[in-house]
């Protein structure tokens, strides 16, 4: 299956056998996987569009696995265990095991541990509670590795370059009535082992959201506070990695004017380093029969790149398209889509960004056209 970012292709073949005796289920398997494409285990670039390799090398890898796994059902509790031998670990035994325990109808507890790759261990502990008006979950995570985090192997707060991390996450949602919902998220992460100064990082992040409204009108308030550090004695003098605290506040209104028309306004602010950044965006969306259109205008003043704010715009293939606003400027975009039939779409997008910083203003015009045919 080709992958859009690395253009790699995987060839997989294998055999498996499954059996069950009373409450014990077992699986024995053998597989051989050959991967051909671009690889880089360490260097990746992160931006608003995702994670991308920086340096690409064309290589070929072959991985062979053999192992067995089992699940035993105790009623309210399930125990999972597996042993794996593969060529990456020199065919030495690697294990993983997990426990799922239904404490009641509304809450459960989970533990997962593994050391599938050499010099790489991971522990996850989850607890979740769900009721009609409230949902609450908590997670503890722990991992260590000799290399930077493998992309796609998990969500880590310190980023893909982290070699170790432990942290705690909390999620809370309260819905006292149908038109009102309150959400809160807490994430904390810090390095376990330190190979250099760059590894010595910790992140604490609070997020809160309030949604109020019905079918025609909806209000939303978002608050985000992030602390990232720490301060190292060398950094105080050289200013290499200063301690960062950024608070962002966003208020939005989504109004359904008519069945085919929708209006949205976003007000955003960011505070940090004793500076203040702000952004105002307005969007109008129209959709009827085979046509769909959107037009938007944004005005912003953001003095520091750390305080940058992102805004959503309609993009080609109706994908997530975020523009990151920075400096003093304005931006407008226009999007039009025609759905000829279930096999063909025609899309056009036009956008312009204008900056006012410096003695000479700058303008940038973007024009995108796409015809999609699905047979």
Secondary-structure element series: EEEEEEEEEEEEEEHEEEEEEEEE
Percentage of helical residues?
A: under 10%
The counted number of beta strands is 23
Q: Beta-strand percentage?
A: over 45%
Choose one word for the global shape: globular
- Assembly form of the protein: single chain
Q: Which structural category do the helix and sheet elements fall into?
A: mainly beta
> How is the main sheet built?
19 strands, antiparallel
Number of helices: 1
Terminal CA distance: 19 Å
- Gyration radius (Cα, Å) is 25 Å
Q: Which spans have pLDDT < 50 for at least 5 consecutive residues?
A: 1-7, 149-153
Return the average pLDDT rounded to an integer. 83
Describe the structure.
This protein has 375 residues and is mainly β. Helix content is 2%, strand content 68%. The chain has a 19-stranded antiparallel beta sheet, with no helix packed on it. A two-stranded antiparallel sheet has the order 3-4. The longest helix has 6 residues, at 233-238. The two termini are 19 Å apart.
Quick summary of this structure?
With 375 residues, this protein is mainly β. It has one helix at 233-238; strands spanning 9-21, 24-39, 44-47, 50-53, 57-73, 77-86, 94-102, 107-114, 121-130, 134-144, 164-177, 180-190, 202-213, 217-229, 244-258, 261-272, 275-288, 291-302, 309-314, 320-325, 327-341, 344-355, 362-373.
Topology:
Layout: E1 9-21, E2 24-39, E3 44-47, E4 50-53, E5 57-73, E6 77-86, E7 94-102, E8 107-114, E9 121-130, E10 134-144, E11 164-177, E12 180-190, E13 202-213, E14 217-229, H1 233-238, E15 244-258, E16 261-272, E17 275-288, E18 291-302, E19 309-314, E20 320-325, E21 327-341, E22 344-355, E23 362-373
């Amino acid at each position: 299956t080709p992958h859009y970012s690395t253009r790699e292709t995987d060839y997989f073949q294998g055999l498996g056998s499954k059996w069950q005796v009373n409450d014990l289920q077992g699986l024995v398997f053998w597989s051989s996987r050959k991967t051909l494409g671009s690889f880089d285990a360490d260097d990746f670039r992160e931006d608003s569009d995702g994670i991308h390799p920086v340096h690409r090398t064309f290589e070929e890898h072959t991985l062979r696995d053999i192992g067995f796994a089992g699940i035993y059902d105790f009623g309210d509790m399930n125990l999972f265990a597996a042993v794996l031998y593969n060529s990456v670990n020199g065919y030495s035994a690697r294990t993983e095991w997990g426990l799922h325990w239904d404490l009641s109808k509304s809450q459960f507890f989970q533990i997962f541990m593994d050391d599938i790759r050499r010099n790489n261990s991971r522990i996850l502990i989850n607890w979740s509670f769900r009721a009609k008006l409230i949902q609450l979950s908590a997670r503890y995570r722990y991992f260590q590795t000799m290399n930077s985090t493998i992309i796609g192997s998990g969500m880590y707060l310190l980023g893909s370059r982290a070699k170790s991390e432990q942290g705690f996450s909390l999620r809370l949602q309260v819905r006292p009535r149908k038109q009102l919902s309150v959400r809160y998220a807490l994430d904390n992460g810090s390095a376990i082992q330190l190979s250099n100064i760059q590894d010595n990082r910790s992140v604490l992040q609070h997020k809160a959201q309030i949604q109020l409204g019905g079918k025609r009108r909806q209000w939303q308030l978002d608050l985000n506070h992030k602390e990232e550090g720490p301060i190292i004695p060398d950094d105080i003098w050289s200013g290499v990695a200063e301690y960062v605290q950024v608070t962002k506040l966003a208020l939005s209104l989504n109004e359904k004017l008519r069945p085919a028309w929708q209006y949205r306004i976003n007000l955003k602010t960011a505070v940090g380093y004793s500076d203040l950044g702000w952004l105002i965006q307005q969007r109008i969306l129209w959709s009827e029969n085979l046509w769909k259109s959107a037009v938007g205008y944004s005005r912003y003043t953001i003095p520091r790149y750390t305080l940058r704010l992102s805004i959503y715009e309609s993009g080609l293939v109706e994908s997530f398209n975020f523009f990151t606003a920075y400096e003093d400027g304005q931006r407008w975009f226009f999007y039009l889509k025609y759905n000829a039939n279930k096999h063909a779409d025609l899309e056009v997008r036009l956008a312009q960004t204008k900056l006012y910083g410096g003695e000479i203003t700058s303008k940038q015009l973007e024009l995108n056209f796409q015809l999609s045919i699905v047979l």
